[in-house]
Specification:
Order of helices and strands: EHEHHHEEEEEE
Helix content: 10-25%
Number of domains: 1
Oligomer: single chain
Number of strands: 8
Distance between the termini: 19 Å
Number of helices: 4
Amino acid sequence: MAAVCGSSGIASLFSQAAFAAESDIADGKIVRFDFAGLQSMAQALAKKPWGGAPGPLPDTLANLTPQAYNSIQYDAAHSLWNGVANRQLDIQFFHVGMGFRRRVRMFSVDTTTHLAREIHFRPELFKYNDAGVDTTQLEGQSDLGFAGFRVFKAPL
């Protein structure tokens, strides 16, 4: 399952909390994941103040109008569990931009091997339609992360 983490302790806590099947969009370094590690991370984060301003966005995203932002759609062909037979749910990610400036990191954790891989931002995960986004400004910006995610019933 996708897991998320952002700058805040709560978001980081949830980043390691969910589990899923192997994903073809997870492209990050493979790291070990277990519940004891999650507990340690939560305890360490609970002792720190929340902080961190969102990083700057490329101009093409920072200056989006609400209408332009709403025209950006996640490409369903890249849903997190798209290749899993008989899946019950679909996971898709929201694009950063406009007022959504805080980066949220996403991970896919294999429940069999307990290995996690980050899912990095890539422009090809989205359909930009008529948003007017200059995607050349987004190439190589894998650290942009996502604005969030949505879970819904998989199409039949």
